[in-house]
């Protein structure tokens, strides 16, 4: 019997060794990224269950207290967070202007804290004031318009705060658009007033250049005005010269009337003290700085 012939196994080439290494790496990656089902979370304890129930009750109570008023319900009742005390409030109280005026289902006038969705289309018209429109307005009109827009911004800020208090995440698009329109109008009013101030200063410089005899005011004179006209022009640089003179004249007349009233009051006070000293009449004389009864003061001044 012939013995088997032992032959050496041929060594793998470099390509075969590289393929085996790549297969080994792929197998390792496959085992590493194999999905394993996560273990279930541990069951909550009795204390955790009680804490979750208490938190849910608190959230439910908070939601009941901060519910939004509807269109037909007065916000004083729907949005109340404490018992009504029956305190009478003036119908023309200034704080009512922070709430939108409207009509409920029965036709009664109510103030709503938040605009309901059914009324958005009624207030969706309008735009911000343009600069060319504001340039044709007088100072009085610009002053009035500024406060009208400020009142609307306060109203819209009240609505945004009420929505945030009630748990709302986003403001309605119409409320956000109206806030932007009010902000733009305010910015343009400031722009127009700044243009008029610069025009006034430029005209004053031209006048001083044409008339060298008029000295330019120094910093000390600007900080300490002496005449009423300087006070008016410095406090409101946007006034025209004729307007400043008219305002200064009215202020001077008012100052003269005040001085005359002070003189009459001083004379009446001295006469009353003299009569009291002589025992003719018992009159209690109050200082000029105290708040006196209007009827008594008028009668005292009228006897002078």
Q: What layout of secondary structure does this protein have?
A:
Layout: H1 14-32, H2 46-65, H3 75-78, E1 100-103, E2 109-112, H4 131-134, H5 139-165, H6 173-210, H7 219-223, H8 228-235, H9 241-278, H10 294-302
Antiparallel strand pairs: 1-2
Can you tell me about this structure?
There is one protein chain. The protein is mostly helical and about 300 residues long. Among the domains are: about 95-105 and about 110-215, no CATH class; about 225-300, no CATH class. About 55% of the residues lie in helices and about 5% in strands. It is built from 10 helices and 2 strands; from the N terminus they run H-H-H-E-E-H-H-H-H-H-H-H. Strand 1 and strand 2 (about 110) form a beta hairpin. Helix 5 runs antiparallel to helix 6 (about 175-210) and helix 8 (about 230-235) packs across helix 9. It is elongated and about 120 Å long. Mean pLDDT is about 70; it is low at about 65-80, about 230-235, about 280-295 and about 300-304.
């Amino acid at each position: 019997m012939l013995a088997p012939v032992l032959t050496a196994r041929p060594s793998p080439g470099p390509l075969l060794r590289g393929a085996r290494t790549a297969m080994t790496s792929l197998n390792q990656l496959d085992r590493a990224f194999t999905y394993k089902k996560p273990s279930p979370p541990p069951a909550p304890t009795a204390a955790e269950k009680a804490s979750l129930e208490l938190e849910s009750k608190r959230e439910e109570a908070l939601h009941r207290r901060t519910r939004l008023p509807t269109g037909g319900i007065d916000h004083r009742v729907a949005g109340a967070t404490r018992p009504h005390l029956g305190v009478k409030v003036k119908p023309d109280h200034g704080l009512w202007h922070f709430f939108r005026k409207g009509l409920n289902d029965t036709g009664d006038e109510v103030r709503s804290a938040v605009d309901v969705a059914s009324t958005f289309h009624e207030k969706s018209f309008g735009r911000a004031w343009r600069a060319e429109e504001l340039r044709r307005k007088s100072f009085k009109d610009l002053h009035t318009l500024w406060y009208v827009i400020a009142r609307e911004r306060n109203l819209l800020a009240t609505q945004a705060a009420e929505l945030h208090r009630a748990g709302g995440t986003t403001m309605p698009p119409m409320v956000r658009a109206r806030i932007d329109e009010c902000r733009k109008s305010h910015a343009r009013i400031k722009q127009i007033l700044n243009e008029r101030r610069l025009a006034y200063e430029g005209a004053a410089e031209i006048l001083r250049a044409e008339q060298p005899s008029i000295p330019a005011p120094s910093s000390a004179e600007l900080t300490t005005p002496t005449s009423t006209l300087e006070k008016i022009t410095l406090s409101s640089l946007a006034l025209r010269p004729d307007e400043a003179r008219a305002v200064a004249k009215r202020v001077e007349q008012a100052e003269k009337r005040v001085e005359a009233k002070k003189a009459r009051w001083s004379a009446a006070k001295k006469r009353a003290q003299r009569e009291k000293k002589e025992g003719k009449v018992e009159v209690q004389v109050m200082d000029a700085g105290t708040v006196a009864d209007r009827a008594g003061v008028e009668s005292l001044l009228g006897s002078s």
